[in-house]
# Entry
Amino acid sequence: MMLNYRKLGSGEPLIILHGVFGSSDNWQTLGKQFAENHEVYLVDQRNHGNSFHHDDFNYDVMSEDLMNLIKYEQLDRVNLIGHSMGGKTVMNFACKYPDMVNKLTVVDIAPKTYPPHHQQIFKAFHAVDLTNIQTRGEADKQMSTIISDFGTKLFLLKNLKRTPDGFSWKVNLPVIEKNIKE
# Structure
């Protein structure tokens, strides 16, 4: 299965991976700036954004997803930027395929184990009754019972999408929640 991604610019390839609960949209502004000198790939990792949902969710399979994208695009050596979860993905990838990596930039994460710390975020997602909301404003109000920070709510609510049947989450919440320790 192929990840959803967008290409911008031309030049040396630069692939950017977002963090947990994020999407390629999070890097659009910087991606446009980087595209002045690079061919930028803004990627939605599995179970996020517009990419496929799958029960397997760990850094090994996400590294293979990245390898599949690189092969599909027929790239040789790439520059990688990974933020948070994306940072762990690109670190894992660089360890498995060092000859494929030209430069590696890791943002806001280190190569160590972190204790689970997203309980409040999961509570906020679950506070939104997707079956009974009609507007994003209603979702915001329900999420506000758990999270008051405007920026955090805005970030999380970017995952809300309207479907013919109402609203749903872009993120594969059950799988992410089940595998967050991975």
